[in-house]
Amino acid sequence: MHLRYYIISCIFFITSLSIDVFAFDTLTIIATSNLKGNFSLDMDDRTDPLLTVARGIMYERATKQVDCYVDLGNAFSPGVLSKYSYGAMMLDYFEFLQCDAALVGTHDIAVGLRNLELASRSRPTQLLSLNITVDNKPIFKPYWIFKKKDIKIGFIGITSSRGIFDVAEKRILSVSLTEYRDYLTNTIAALKEMGCKYIIVLSGLSSAENSAIMKEYSQVDCILAGGDASGLYYDVYAPRLDLEDGRSIITVTKPDGHYTIRLALKEKAVVETITFTNLDKTVSDSSYSDLVEKINLWKERYAEVATVAIAENFPSTDVSPVTIAHMLRHYYNSEVAIVNVGDVVATSLSGTVTGIDVQRVVQNDYTIFTYRLSGRQINIISGISGLVFSGLVAGKIQGVSVHHDRMYKVSSTQSAYDIITATLKEEVPYTNTWTALSALMTNDLKADKCIANNNFEYLDNRFRLTVDINLANIYDNSVVTTDDGASTPPGMPSKTYKKWGIEDSADITLYNQFHRLTLTPYIYYMRQDELYLQNLLRGTFLYSYTLNPYVNPYHKSQVDTVVVKKDDGLRPILFRETVGASFLYSYLSGRIGVGFEKQTQDPEKDMLYGAESILQIQIPFLSYFIYTFNLDNFITIPEGSNSTYQIRTEMRNALSININTWLSLTIRHRWFYYNPLDTQIPYTYTQLLVSLDVKAKFKVF
After folding, report:
1. Which is nearest to 655 in space by CA: 693, 697, 608?
2. Is 140 within 8 Å of 157 (Cβ atoms)?
3. Considering the domain boundaries, does residue 10 fall inside one?
4. Which of 524, 530, 536 is nearest to 476 (CA)?
5. In this predicted structure, what is the pLDDT of residue 594?
6. Confidence of residue 21 (pLDDT cuts 50, 70, 90)
7. Structural domain range at position 233
8. How far apart are CA 5 and CA 17, in angstroms?
9. 574-586 per-position pLDDT tens digit
10. Are 361 and 451 part of one and the same domain?
């Protein structure tokens, strides 16, 4: 009998010892994400989305054991009331619900970092961000330590690098989003020195970045990802990803409820269960009325200033990101306007429009930037899915294909500008208008009401002026072949030579989507001592009307003369007038027309009627090379003649090597053929040129 009692006692002792040895604590966390300050504007708490979430959290705390509450980012913006209170309203909300820590998400930055930092002082809720820095020092606390019994758990906050700061904060306060690795290693080491057994990261990073953290930092027990995180792994949504060593990445993104996450505090903090609750609960806590009263007080304050009418009898209008982009072009006279799709929520406006309506439309209320982008840069950013363009349609601006080295005036929201510079990986000089998007929209509603337009084609009817200058220093090796009795055409050489010279031109173009007028002065002049070898001065006026992308009518006036009088003191002048059709397709362009040619002096000759054919092929290749082929042919016959004719043909081949935007090295071959009426003796002129070209393209307006 005594032996039996002894055995039973031993069993109880061993069992109790094993329970004590293998027992472990648990950590229960309430988590929210993407609340976005989404308070309703009415006074009924039963219809307010965030008060519904609050009742669920209060019910959870009242009925279950909860250790701590963390928010995973984007709690403060773009909600109208939260932005109006500069985040103070959400901090009141968090304080009432005993939120211990909140990650600063990219949308939260729109409230203003200094506003958040000042509003959060002396608040119990810790705002966390490891990598938002001022002068390379975190502006918010990088971590928060929770203590359960004698166990310390460190929570680290990492903000997504997609955050966009107000330009004043960036320039004046030197605010930046730094690479999280610069600080994460030291922060983990500091938490371990302070006795933290477990490390939990609150992350707004991408799935790939979160996976990299788990791979690189074995000290991290768990990542709770939310806010800007998507939870996509190879295009598959995975709210929970468990690693082989028992650690986990948990992604919580739903804004209409709360998550309850239970972790077992073993050798590692192991996630046991995750539940999401969005059911409306009834709470009996009398303090809930205090929360509702405080929230309604904020709503009343906002209603006093935001319900004042901005526009009366406003026509029914669907406002979208595209509409806002059109509005930017209207006010800043830009060729292209760009809006981040997240800057604006598509909304229908009609009747009486108030400040509340404007705030509902505008999500990122930063200032408007104006700047210039090259055609190359525009082609790069045109494929960004998150950007909305006005003025850029099918690779064309105002009906003309985007030219890679042409500069275009652009207006955009600051968030779009930051996306553009991040994509281009280069800084783009800009002018800050210091006009916020909401202010611009408010002023428009009061005055022009351009956003109510059904048709914005008038924006493409605005005229633009460009000036393209080409300056060439030329080494010229020319060979002339003709009979002794042949006459020399105006401006053409009579002997073979090798000399240096200049060939300069300027294209001055005034255009819109339908009309295009180009004035081109051209000079080709060479001389040796007092002897000129090339002596051509030409002026061309070209008008074209855009009917479709491929074939359009044109009219051209051209006059040729000499820079200095010939040796015989004569200054011949030759006019050519033609009308016809121009065509454009890919690398090929040209004109086919009819008209007349007349030499008016030194000596005056009869008018000649004929046909003009002009062809140009320009093919860029290997990034730095451009091959160009030009053919200019004019065949004429005198009035009343059916047997004699005159041919004037010029053909050019050129290979250019671009040294930089302004400078290129060009090898040209030029062939000229002239068969005059008076002698019918052909004149042939060939030329091989090597030139250093300076090219400058200016946008006047």
Report:
1. 693
2. yes
3. no
4. 524
5. 94
6. very low
7. 26-299
8. 18
9. 999 999 999 988 8
10. yes
